[in-house]
Design a protein that fits this description.
alpha/beta; 21% strand; 8-stranded mixed β-sheet; 190 residues
């Protein structure tokens, strides 16, 4: 049995999709780590672990019990959360770290914005690149899924990290359930 930990705030649709995928894989046990304020969004039968992302000792102790950790990154705190997750993952010695961010370099670089939004766009791209660098410099086996739709989804992983000239585009939307497999190996391109 694989023990997987979910961290981060998901939409109701993402929760339903993830729970549907987990139900189809009997060898996977999913637990959720988060504040009590997020508990009501999850089904009652979910194994819930109460904790804050800022409580790094508790986060590390919790991560040690799991084979893989899934993290939904918040675009407002992308760099800080990536640093926190990589340092906690290294300290906990986890086997696999899977991150998902709704922001995507592909979308941001292909979106025309008014001049007064260009600073925000450049800052978002810079934050994505900083997060990439943090992951590249870590010793973790990671997979990072960027984007929300098939047109802007991309995947980064430890296996691809030596050739990251640009993002590897996906042919369809990539979600957490794409990497819920017995061996926790994420596809290079979906």
């Amino acid at each position: 049995m694989q023990r997987l930990l979910m961290i981060g705030q998901l939409t109701d649709q993402q929760i339903q999709t993830l729970m549907g995928a987990v139900r189809q894989l009997p060898a996977v046990m999913l637990s959720v780590y988060g504040p009590n304020s997020q508990r009501s969004a999850w089904p009652q039968a979910t194994n819930w672990i109460t904790g804050e992302l800022t409580d790094q000792p508790r986060l590390i102790a919790t991560m040690r019990k799991y084979d893989g950790v899934f993290v939904q990154l918040d675009s407002k705190w992308l760099v800080a959360q990536t640093q926190l997750m990589t340092s906690a993952g290294q300290a906990a010695g986890i086997n696999q770290l899977i991150l998902k961010s709704d922001a995507s370099v592909l979308t941001l670089t292909q979106t025309d914005v008014h001049w007064y939004h260009q600073f925000t766009q450049r800052r978002q791209i810079r934050n994505l690149r900083l997060a990439e660098r943090i992951l590249q410099q870590s010793s973790l086996d990671f997979t990072w899924i960027q984007g929300q739709a098939a047109a802007d989804s991309a995947i980064y992983s430890r296996a691809l990290s030596t050739t990251w000239a640009t993002a590897v585009p996906a042919r369809r939307t990539l979600n957490f359930e794409d990497v819920l497999t017995v061996d926790l190996n994420a596809p290079a391109v979906a």
